[in-house]
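Protocol step 4 of 6.
Sequence for Chlorophyll synthase (Sphaerotilus mobilis) entered exactly as in the expression construct, tag removed. Do not edit the line below.
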Amino acid sequence: MQRPAFSAIAELLKPITWFPPMWAFACGVVASGLPAQGRWPLIVAGVLLAGPFVCATSQAVNDWFDRHVDAINEPQRPIPSGRLPGRWGLGIAILWTLLSLLLATSLGPVALAAAGVGLLLAWAYSAPPVRLKRNGWWGNSACALCYEGLAWLTGAAVMSLGDWPEGRSIALALLYSAGAHGIMTLNDFKSIEGDRRMGIGSLPVRLGVTGAARVACLAMAAPQLVVVGLLLQWQAPGHAAAVAGLLMVQLVLMRRFLADPLARATWYSATGVLPFVLGMLTSALALRALAQGLAS
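Step 5 output, structure tokens:
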């Protein structure tokens, strides 16, 4: 069988998608409030686990089981274009799953558990008979939890040398996972036609373009309002004000997005997601300051 070019394999693993879980992992590291000295090998391994391994695995799995949809929406992708012939896509997905689990074993039981759940969600999202992506509510929830919450918790667990993160860190990880549901919905706007033809019930297909856009904005904004409230309750008003300011920026951008969601979904993904992830880091810095008695 013809061997694919390295460029086709790299394209399958989609390095551009690795940033969100790597960022979330870094937020978990920061939120732990613990010094990085002596933990850098674990931190580097955790960043690799979150991005080039678990996230890359999810991309390979999705492209293999979505090859028929991609033939309609994006025929230039490696599998439908034939640049990854035969069952190479499936083989890479299985190999990366095993490599991810192997790396996770070096990071302690909590990180291994988080990676295991993330990989299960990656396969459940794309592979039959579960194929969570057939329902935009469930599928986007699985992706959001995998990319944000589990990565955050892994970062915090690595810093605590295997212990479960504290309750406030878990709360923020789950809230930003809920917010990431909206980001996942934005990603579905580019594949409406193929999803409709292949029976995939993404939110733009189920709710229509306008309805899905409103849900995406609400999903992103509401958890951040809760974060602001929690930071105030935790006596971190400065950080709460910063998160609130970043949310206000998003609300201004959302208004423009909602005026023409189909044309501006990609634009909003490129502009509105940045203040969202900066809010994540600000919240993590709040927990760090609280742990060190520096919050104000």
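Step 6, annotate. The mean pLDDT is 93.
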